[in-house]
Design a protein that fits this description.
- By secondary structure, this protein is α/β, with parallel strands linked by helices.
- The chain folds into 2 domains: 4-222 and 299-309, Spore Coat Polysaccharide Biosynthesis Protein SpsA, Chain A, CATH 3.90.550.10; 227-294.
- Helix content is 46%, strand content 14%.
- The protein has 9 helices and 8 strands.
- The protein has helices at residues 17-31, 48-52, 69-79, 99-109, 125-141, 174-180, 204-223, 227-255, 265-294; strands at residues 4-10, 35-41, 58-63, 84-87, 113-117, 154-157, 185-189, 303-309.
- The chain has an 8-stranded mixed sheet, with helices on both faces.
- Helix 5 (125-141) runs parallel beside helix 7.
- It is elongated.
């Protein structure tokens, strides 16, 4: 039986995959437990796949196009068979030599999840600033109680993912999602290296998508089982505001005899009452529908091929 499944999403990392794979194999061999290594190619357009095909032991899952890191991670997790799932980035900045730290921390702390904390990050200033901002927002909306949710170097018990489907940019919020289901989380400081080859895929689009997903997760954490507490409150607020405007118009017209035919306030009142409620309720219905569609077997990513090159895999 496999003990550790190593999950590594890859996108245009032809210069990094060989060294990264070698370091993972060396580290896992030193641990002495059965393992498997799964690299998920997220639609690379360079020679990444060709490099991966030469490596062993390795399972390569190739997606048909670039679906994003969350989709790649979900595909790898669903294919994994290990008792423990360990994730890390494919850019080489998460050193595989830190994996034994996570394993020992899980044993010491007796938790379901161990999250790496890149306390001394080797990233550009822009990325550090945005990460600080993301941490502040997570503290308000998500409350995952860890310092570095964006660190991909994590260890999970396999049962953590038995009823979890990932999409959007939700890989950053996996600990929070699991903690709400009762899984326990620990944290340990890990080393972080500067990128040696290739270019970072981190940009403003991922920041925006991550923020939107954070708001979605905030809603599901707080109102998933009682959505009317949120939307009912908004409905009351909008209706009372619109009603107050109608009262104002009534007083103006009936008591003071002033004309309201040239006023836009009646339209504003109607918009507050009707469009506001309709907009928010429609939004939640769409969100629920999407989650139902993507649950189970309806994945939003498509796997092209799966290559198993595990003749030398430790068993």
């Amino acid at each position: 039986m496999i003990t550790y499944s190593i999950i590594v999403p890859i996108f245009n990392e032809e210069e990094n995959v060989s060294n990264l794979h070698s370091e993972i194999v060396t580290t896992l061999n030193s641990i002495g437990e059965p393992f498997e290594i799964i690299f998920i190619d997220d639609g690379s357009v360079d020679n990444t796949v060709k490099k991966l095909q030469t490596l062993s032991p390795l399972t390569v899952i190739q997606l048909r196009r670039n679906f994003g890191q969350t989709a790649a991670m979900d595909a790898g997790i669903k294919h994994a068979t290990g008792k423990y799932i360990i994730t890390l980035d494919g850019d080489g900045q998460n050193p595989p030599s830190e994996i034994p730290k996570l394993i020992q921390a899980q044993k010491d702390q007796q938790v379901d999840i161990i999250s790496g904390w890149r306390r001394k990050r080797k990233d550009p200033l822009f990325k550090k600033i945005t990460s600080r901002g993301a941490y502040a927002l997570r503290s308000i909306f998500v409350k995952d109680h860890i310092h570095d949710s964006g660190c991909s170097l994590k260890l999970y018990k396999r049962e953590c993912f038995e009823h979890v489907d990932l999409f959007g940019e939700m890989h950053r919020f996996i600990p929070a999602i699991l903690s709400w289901s009762g899984f326990t989380i620990g944290e340990i400081e890990v080393e972080h290296h500067s990128r040696k080859h290739g270019t970072s895929k981190y940009n403003w689009k991922r920041i925006v998508k991550g923020f939107i997903d954070m708001l979605s997760i905030w809603f599901w954490r707080k109102y998933a089982n009682r959505p009317l507490h949120l939307f009912g409150s908004l409905s009351i607020l909008l209706t009372l505001t619109g009603g107050a405007l109608f009262v104002y118009l009534f007083i103006r017209r009936i008591i003071y005899g002033l004309s309201i035919s040239n006023s836009n306030i009646p339209l504003l009142a109607m918009l507050l009452v009707i469009l506001g409620i309709q907009f928010f309720i429609s939004g939640i219905l769409v969100d629920i529908t999407i989650r139902q569609f993507y649950s189970g077997t309806n994945n939003y990513y498509v796997i092209k091929t799966i290559l198993n090159n595990n003749t030398d895999e430790k068993t």
